[in-house]
Amino acid sequence: MAIIERPSDTVALAPSGAPAVATPGTSYGVFRRPVHTTGWKSWLFTIDHKKLGIMYGITSMVFFIIGGVEALLIRLQLAGPNGTVLNADQYNQMFTMHATTMVFLFVMPMAAAFANYMVPLQIGARDVAFPRINAFGYWAYLFGGLLLNSAWFLGGAADGGWFMYAPNSSVVFSPTNGVDFWGLGLQITGIASLTGAINLIVTVINMRAPGMSLMKMPIFTWMVMVVQFLLLFAMPVITVALFMLMFQRSFDATFFSVEAGADPLLWQHLFWIFGHPEVYIIVLPSFGIVSEILPVFSKKPLFGYPLIVFSGAAIGLVGWGVWAHHMFASGLGPISVAVFSVATMAIAIPTGVKIVNWTLTMWGGKIAFTVPMLYAVGVIVQFTIGGLSGVTHSVAPSDTQQTDTYYIVAHFHYVIFGGAVLGLFGGLYYWWPKIFGKMLNERLGKWNFWLTIVGMNLTFGPMHVIGIQGQPRRMYVWTENRAGEGFFNLGFWNLMATVGSFVLSLGVLLFLINIYVSHRKGTQPAPLDPWDARSLEWITSSPPKEHNFDRLPTVGHLDEFFHRKYEDRGEGERHDYHQVATAEEILAGEEANGDKHIHLPSPSYWPILLAFSLPVMGYGVIYNLYLLAGGALLALVSMYGWGMEPHTAPSDDYDPPTGTELEVAAHG
Amino acid sequence: MSHSREDHERTMSTDVRTTRRLQNVRFRSLTSAGLTAAAVLGLSACASNAPQDTWKPAGENAQKIHDLQWPVFTVAGIVGVIVLVFIGVIVFRFRDRGQAIPEQTHGKAWLEYLFIAIPAVILTAIAIPTVGVVMALADTDDTECIINVTGQQWWWEYDYEVEPDGTICGFAPSAGEASPIITSGQVVIPAGTKVLMRGTSRDVIHSYWIPRLNGKRDMVPGRVHYLRLQSDTPGIYAGQCTEFCGLSHANMRMETVVLEPADFQRWLDNELEPYQSPDEGTLAKEGESTYITQCSRCHQVNGLVDDKGTDDAGDDTLVVSYPDQFVYSGAAPNLTNLMGRNTFAGASWDLLTPECRDDVWGASPEEFGDKYLAGVTEECLNEIDLREWLRNAPAKKPMYADAELLEPTDGKTRGMPYLALSEDQIDQLIAYLLERK
Asked: How many domains does chain A have?
C-alpha cells in the first residue's frame, strides 16, 4: 500500500511526448483500479494526499461558513433582552450545532487538511503511508458531517449542547432525532480522525527523508504528530461514550438512566477525558503553523526548538490529567478538585514556554509583516489573553463563579479562535502559493486580518465583562432585571458582542473575496519561494508535482531549505549570511537529478464506497434496522474489495506524469 | 544582504544598546500606562449594581473566593500587560529595515530555564491558597441550618426540615408546632447563619448559583451535593440555573432572601399559619373552587379543604395534589404562600409591578425586612405577567418543544400545560392567589 518502487525491468517508459494509453489489464478483486487523472472522477477516487488535503480544506471551509451563520443567529438573538429572532428550541439547536460544527467539522478537519497536504512534503515523502485509508478518512468526515447536518431537515438538530450531558440527552428530554444524528455523525467523523491519526503517525515515523532525524523535523510536523497521538487515545474514549449514548437512545440501554442506578457523572468523565485532550488537538496544529511562520518572517530559526517540541509533547501528556477542571462545580469532592486544579495550573508552564519562545524567535530578527506573519503575531497576542484568563479559572473556587458563564465563552474563544483559527488562517496565507501556485492578495489580506482581529476582540472581549457580572451561557434570552445599571450595563456589552460578530464575519468574507480576486484570470503565478522559506516543502514546485519530489531530498539540517540557500561566511562569533542559491536553481538541480523509478499508488473506488456505508448504517440505526443491515453489507463488500485490490494498478493502467522526462497526456 | 562585516558588527552593537535603553524606558512607561488604562477601563466599563456580579461578594463564602481571585486576576493582568508590551516592543524594534540576516541562533538554555521557573513560582504561589479555599468551601461541620433544595425543569423547590428539637434553622415557631415548609423560587435564610443547601434533582442536572453568596454547585439526579450559603446583609440575592437543563434553561432562576433573625421569625410564623379560606361570596372564594378543579391536581396549598366533597367520616376532604400523575419530574411549586414571595414560574417573572419591585429590591438592609414581608399587595401585583401565564403558560415559558413529542414521557408534561382557562376563571384565580400569603 505504501509507495512501492517498481523494479526497473517492469518500467514501461513511454517515449517523450507520446501519450500512454490506458488498456485493460488483468482484473483483480471486484473492480480494476480506476485510472483517472483529470475530471471529477480523479477527485472522487483519488488517494493523493494533496488532493485530499485540498478537499479537506474546502469542505471544512464550507462548514466554517455554516457554523459562522449559526453564530451570527445566536448573536442576533442575544443583541437585546428577550430576543425573538429564534425561539428556545431553535436557539438550543443553534448553539449545540455551532460548537459541534466549529470543533468537529471545521477546526479539526482544517488542521487535517494542512497535516495531509504538508506533512509528506515537509518530511520529503511522496505520499502518506496508507493512501487509501487517507481517502477513506476524508469521505468518512464528509459523510459524517452531512449526516450530522441533515438533522436540520429531519425534525430538528441536536439540542443538548456540544457536551451533551446525560441525562438531558435521553429520549425523554430530547425526543427528536437530533441527538441521534449528533451521536452517529460524530462516531463517523471520529472514525475518520482515528484512521487519519494512525496513518500520519506511521507516515512520520517511517517515511522521513534520509537524514531527517526526529529533532530535524519541521515543527509543524512535530505538532501534528503529537496531535495524532492525542487523537489515537482520545477518540476511542468518545467513541465508547457515543456508543453508550446510541444504545441508550435507540436500543433502550440504561447507561445514563438514574432510575436504573446510573450516575450521570459517568458521561461527564468520558466526555471530558476526550474533551480536554481535544482542546490541544484543536490548538497544537495551529501552534505548529505559527512556529513555522515566525522563523521564516523573522529570518531566524525557531528559538528553543527542542523546548518547543518538548513543551508540545508535555502539553499533550499533561492534557490527559486535567479533564475534571471542566467539572469543578459538578460535585467531585474537594480532593479531586484540588488535584485537578493544581494540574491545570501546571499545564500553563509548557504553554507559557511556547509564548516566550515565539517572542524570543522574533527578538533580534528581521521581521517582515506579511499577512501570514500578522496572523502569527495575532495568535501570540490573542492566545496570551486566552491563556491568562485560563489561569484565572484554574483556581477552582474562582472557577465555580466563572464556569458556565460568558467569561468561559470569552476564554475559550480567545483560545480557539485566537489560538487555533487565526493560526489556520495564517497557514492558509502562508501555504496558499505552495498549494495553488497563486499568491493571495496581500492588501486584501491585511484588511482581512485587521477586520478579523478587531471583530474577534469586539465579539469576545465584552464577554469577559458579561460573564464576570453574572450572565450564564446557553440562555436563549437574557433579562434586563439581571443586566445591571449604567451606560456600560450588560445590554451594552451584549450589543457590542453582536456588532463585533458582524465585523468578524466581514473579515472572513474578505478572505473568500481574496480567493476570488487572487485566482481571477490573468493573475501572475506565485514565485517559487515567495517568503524565503526554510523547510522542505518549498524545495519542490508550486503546486507540487503529483509525486512531490523528483529526487527525494537528503536532509542535513533543521531548516534544510534555508541552509541550501544561504551560507555563513562569518568566522567565529561573527555571522555573515550570503545567498548561494535561489529556489529556482535548487529546483532545477533536483529536477536534473530526479529519481528514475517513481511509482505512485493508483486511485481506488473502495475508500469512498466503504465510507458511504457508514451514513447508510447511521440512518439505519435511526430509521430502519434493515437499512442498518444493508449498510453493514455494503461495508463488508467494500472491505472485501479493498482487501482483494492489488496494491497498484497493472503498469499499463496507470502511470502518473513523472516530471520533465516523461510526458503523459491522457488517461482514461 | 551585502553588508560588510564591519557594518554588521556596528549594527549589532547599536541594536544591543538601543534595546537596553528601550527596555528600561519604554517598558516602564508603557507598563504603568497600560496598567492604569486597564484599571480605569476595568472599573468604568462594567455595569453598576449587576445583581449577579461575581466580584461583589455579600457573604463569607463568596468573600473567600473573591479574596483568592482578585490577586490572581491582578497577577494575570500584569503578566498579560508585560507580555503584550514586550511583543509590541519586539515587533517595532526588529521590523525589517534592511538589516542583515540575523545570527541563526537556536536558543539560550539559561533563558529558557528562567522562563520555566518564573511561571512555576507564580503558579505555586497561587496553588497553595487555592487548595486551602477548596477545602474551606467543602467544610460542612459548622452548619447551623440545613435547607433541602431540589431542581427540576425549570424551577427550584426548597424544603425546610424540622429539626429533632422542633426548630427550623434554629428558630422555634412562636405558636404551635413546626411543620416542614415547602416553597419555591425564593429561599429565605436568616442573616448571619451558616446555611447548608442540600441539593439534588428530579430530572436532569441543574446548577445552583447565587453569585454574591457562593460559587455554583451542580444538582445531579441520584446524588446529593452540598453548597454553603451565608450573608450578614439583608436583601435579595439573585441567581440563575447554570447547568444547561433543556428548553427553558434561561427561565430557571432563583433568589436567596436574607432576613434579620427577628424578620426571619416573622416569616417562619407566617409560613406556618393555618389555611384561611376566602370570605363567602367574594371573587376569591369562587377562585378557591376554580383552584380546586383546575390547579390542585399539581399545586399544593397547605390546609386547603374541599367543602363540596366529604370523606367517609363526613368531614370536608383535605385537598392533596398528585403532580406525579401529570408532570414528568413529579413535582409542582407549592402555592401556599405564593404572594409572600415576589417572583413566580421559576423566579422568571415578577409578582410585583416594576415600581414596587424596585422599592423592595433597592431597599436598605434596615428597611428590607418590612418591605419584603409585606408580600404582594393588590396595588403592587404585576397582573400582566401573571395573567399571561395563566392564559397559556407554555407560550410564555417554553416547556416542551412539541406536544406530539410527549410520547416518551407517557404524555406527562414538563412544566405547566395549557389549561384553556376562561378570562373569568383567571380573574377568580388571581383574586384567590392574592390572598395566599
From this structure: 3
In a domain, A583, yes or no: yes
Integer Cα distance of A652 and B390 in angstroms: 80
List the single residue in A156, A392, A470 with the smallest CB-CB distance to B211. A470
Dihedral class, residue B376 (left if φ above 0, else alpha if ψ from -120 to 50, else beta): beta
What grid cell was written down for B22?
A: 528601550
C-alpha B98/C-alpha A502 separation (Å) is: 39
Phi-psi region of B230 (alpha: psi -120 to 50; beta: other; left: phi over 0): beta
Do residue A7 and residue A154 come from a single domain? Answer: no
- Select from A214, A244, A262 the last residue of a domain: A262
Residue B283 is placed in which grid cell? 371573587
The answer to whether A220 touches A376, Cβ cutoff 8 Å, is no
**pLDDT score at A3:** 40
Same domain assignment for residues A14 and A152? no
Q: Are residues A42 and A56 in the same domain?
A: no
User: Phi and psi at residue B163, in whole multiples of 5°?
Assistant: -70, 160
- The DSSP bridge pattern shows strands B343-344 and B349-350 to be antiparallel
A133 and A28 within one domain? no
Alpha helix (H) residue ranges in A334-475 = 334-362, 371-394, 396-402, 406-413, 422-436, 442-468
Digit-coded pLDDT (tens) for B374-413: 999 999 999 999 999 999 999 999 988 677 778 888 889 9
Our separate counts of H helices and E strands in chain B read 10, 14
What pairs with residue A62 in β-bridges?
none
Beta strand B225-229 pairing with B186-190: unpaired
User: Do A10 and A156 fall within a single domain?
Assistant: no
For residue A251, tell me if it sits in a domain.
yes
Residues 6+ apart with CB under 8 A from A10: A651
Q: pLDDT digits over A96-116, tens only?
A: 999 999 999 999 999 999 999
Whether A395 sits inside 8 A of B72 (CB atoms) is yes
Find how far residue B351's CA is from the centre of its chain. 19
The residue of A169, A172, A402 whose CB has the most chain B CBs within 10 angstroms, and thus the best one to mutate to test that interface, is A172
Q: Is residue A230 located within the same domain as residue A181?
A: yes
Domain that holds residue A649: 1-47+602-668
Q: What is the tens place of the pLDDT at every residue in A366-412?
A: 999 999 999 999 999 999 999 999 999 999 999 999 999 999 999 99
User: Closest by alpha carbon to B249, among B391, B392, B152, B385?
Assistant: B152
In a domain, A403, yes or no: no
Residues A611 and A540 in one domain: no
Please report residues of A whose CB lies closer than 8 A to that of B120: 349
Amino acid identity of A79?
A
Helix, strand or coil, per DSSP, at residue B184: strand
ipTM of the complex: 0.90
Burial B105-115 (b: 16+ CB within 10 A, else e): eebeeeebeeb
Residue among A160, A341, A489 whose CB faces B47 most closely: A489
Helices A178-206 and A606-623 pack at an angle, to 10 degrees, of 150
CATH class of B145-272: mainly beta
Residue contact B123–A391, C-beta within 8 A = yes
* Whole-structure pTM value: 0.91
Are residues A67 and A94 located together in one domain of the fold?
yes
DSSP β-bridge partners for residue B179:
none
> Across B302-392, where does the E strand assignment appear?
305-310, 316-318, 343-344, 349-350
Distances from the Cα of A568 to the Cαs of A531, A556, B1, B103, in angstroms? 20, 15, 12, 9
pLDDT at A169: 95
Whether residue A440 is contained in a domain is answered as no
Closest Cβ–Cβ partner in A349, A359, A482 for B86: A359
Domain boundaries, chain B: 5-38+51-94+108-138, 145-272, 283-434
